[in-house]
Structures are given as structure tokens and as C-alpha cells.
Amino acid sequence: MSVMVARKKVVRKWEKLPGRNTFCCDGRIMMARQKGIFYLTLFLILGTCALFFAFECRYLAVQLSPAIPVFAAVLFLFAMATLLRTSFSDPGVIPRALPDEAAFIEMEIEATNGTVPQGQRPPPRIKNFQINNQIVKLKYCYTCKIFRPPRASHCSICDNCVERFDHHCPWVGNCVGKRNYRYFYLFILSLSLLTIYIFTFNIVYVALKSLKIGFLNTLKETPGTYPSTPLTVLTVLEVLICFFTLWSVVGLTGFHTFLVALNQTTNEDIKGSWTGKNRVQNPYSHGNIVKNCCEVLCGPLPPSVLDRRGILQQEESTAQEESRPRGTSAPEPTAAPGAGGQAEEGGTQQRDGSLRPPSAVPAPSLSSAEMPEEKQLTSGEAPVPSQDAGQAEH
């Protein structure tokens, strides 16, 4: 005889989240799926700093000051901390609409636009939203089935709507949005300082060695490793990496400093949202550089609305065979007849006229695919807007 037993299986919400993200450490780490360039970023930073600490720093600490490797270590640790914080965090992904919410939004749109004659193109799905006495259009996202909030956009790489979307950065392996922009800015700023620092003291190291043993002898010198490698190879490798990093990272830092001072995003700058032909002023700017920097870099950080580690429970029914001794039969319970000689409700009549009580096994609960995910929005947020699915806006 087999008995159905219900067993609860715990499922985290991150396992059912749509989009093209990957999760690690039980949902604590969230990244994009394309992480190859992120590993290259780690390799370049770790490799360059390892060579600098292994060779130049030891000589410079003795000849000049022991503070040189200490300051380099502080810059290195700060750059790595901000990089990992940017790469492993939720950039501000907006949850997609639940089926009931999507159906309600569709009904509202049909009621507003009315019936469109056949052959005619339906009007664009937008809503007008007023910010600082200026009208801002909220666009509808056909993938997330929502009206995106102001400054949000849909990333085609991660396939999610991101609040205050700046751009998708493959070097950090994640989108850059409202919840990790400040860490991204601090990362490129500290990396620029670290690059300038290593590049400068590489030149100082070669100059000091050249004054003592000559420039050619300095290039021929080996660092005492086996197999011995001329110092020129290691030094030139560091200088080349730092040189090309200076052109890219330092320039990127200057560009984002300009954006922070104007309280503007990369996406808005590329599209010319506030500098186009309409000459519309940026409604998010305070007209003051200090206030804009304080809002972008020091303002309160909103919590994630995904609730990645929230629990969804579903029950699995498993069949277990009940073993009984041979030659014995289990007693079959009987039920006393009710009024009028009828059996009480809830029993199952057997061949011998007795009744079997109803099964005590609870009905299986909804599967994780049928259970709606909780959608939590922070208070005071604007209605959620969107734009055409699948289109990356950088």
C-alpha cells in the first residue's frame, strides 16, 4: 500500500527571477552573465600591483620612504573594494509586473486609447509626469509590462529595467544604475589615482637606479628570480599597462565627474535628453555643483526591491510504500451511521459496507511557477515606466 506524503521544498526568489543575471552565494551576489571582461579587469589590476609591490616598492621603501608601499596598498584595497561592490550588487533592477498587474495596465491603456481601427498604428504608450514644473514622459516597457519611472531604462544585455540607468559596463560585469553608481565612480577615481601613482614611481625607480649603475645596466639588471628575467621586461610591462590605462580610465573619470556635477547620466548624455533641439533644461539638476555632487554621491541609498533571498515554498508529493506483515490485514475503521441510518459524510464506503475515513494528506500547494512573486516598492517612488523590450540604451 502506498501513501502520498507532502514534503516542503524551500525555493529562494532569486531562483525564479527573470532576466539574464547570474547569482552566487545563495542570491547574495548578482552579476550579468557576460563576465569575461570583468575577469580581465581583475587580472590587469592584480597583476600590475603584484609586480609593483614585488620589485619597485621594496627598493623605493628603503631609498625614499616606507610610506610609498603603504599608500599604494591603501589605494589598491580601496579600488578593489569599490570594484567588487559595483560588480556584485543589484544596480536597481525594477521587478516585472505580475500577471494581474499587467492585465490591469493593459485594460487602462485600452480604455485610454480606445479601439484602434484595423490597419492603423496604435499610439505610443506613454504617460506624462511632472518634475520641477517640467513634463517628463514615462515610457512603457513591453518586456517588463510596466511604465518605467523617470530616468529608468531597459538593458538588453541583462534584460531588466534599471532605475536611473547610466550604462552597462562590461569591465565591471554589471549594469551601473541608481544603487551602485557611486561605487562605480569611486572605483574609476581610485583606479585612476592608483595608475598615476604606479606609473610615476616606476619612472622614479628607473631614474634612481640609473643614477647609481647607469641606464643600460639598469635595463640589464635581473630581479633575482629564476629563471632570471631582465628588469626591463617587467618594468616596460607595468609602464605599458599604466600608460594605456591612463588614457582610458582617467578620461572616463573626467567624463563622469562632469556628469556628476550636472546630475546627469551617460544614457541621457548620449541621447541628448537635456541638450537637444528642444533646449529642455535638466529637471533633476539643482543648478549647483555641490548640491548635485552631494545628491549623486552622498544621498540616501535605496534598498533593493527584488528581495532576492525571500522564500517561496512549494510542496512535493512523494509516494512511500507502507509495509505490513504477511497474513495480517489492517483493520478497516467503521463509522457509526448517522440519522436515518445514513453514513456520516467524509467517509468512503468499502465493499463490506464499512467506511474509510477521508485522507489526512493536505492538498499540494501551488508550485513555484504558479505562486506570484512579492513585489515591494519603496514609498514615495514614482509609477514604474518602461520602454521597448530588447533595446539597450547606453
From TrEMBL:
Keywords: Acyltransferase, Endoplasmic reticulum, Golgi apparatus, Lipoprotein, Membrane, Palmitate, Transferase, Transmembrane, Transmembrane helix
Gene Ontology CC terms, in alphabetical order: endoplasmic reticulum membrane; Golgi membrane
Membrane-topology annotation of the record: Multi-pass membrane protein
Biased composition (Low complexity): 327-337
Ranges where the Palmitoyltransferase DHHC domain occurs: 137-271
PROSITE patterns hit by this protein: DHHC
TM stretches of this protein: 37-55, 67-84, 183-208, 228-250
Any Pfam family: DHHC
InterPro entries the UniProt entry points to: Palmitoyltrfase_DHHC, PFA4/ZDH16/20/ERF2-like
Subcellular location field: Endoplasmic reticulum membrane; Golgi apparatus membrane
EC number: 2.3.1.225
GO molecular function, one term: protein-cysteine S-palmitoyltransferase activity
Biological processes annotated in GO: protein targeting to membrane
Catalytic reaction annotation: L-cysteinyl-[protein] + hexadecanoyl-CoA = S-hexadecanoyl-L-cysteinyl-[protein] + CoA
Enzyme class: transferase
Annotated spans, Disordered: 315-394
Comment, domains: The DHHC domain is required for palmitoyltransferase activity.
Family label: Belongs to the DHHC palmitoyltransferase family. ERF2/ZDHHC9 subfamily.
Protein name in UniProt: Palmitoyltransferase
UniProt organism field: Nyctibius bracteatus (Rufous potoo)
Lineage: Eukaryota, Metazoa, Chordata, Craniata, Vertebrata
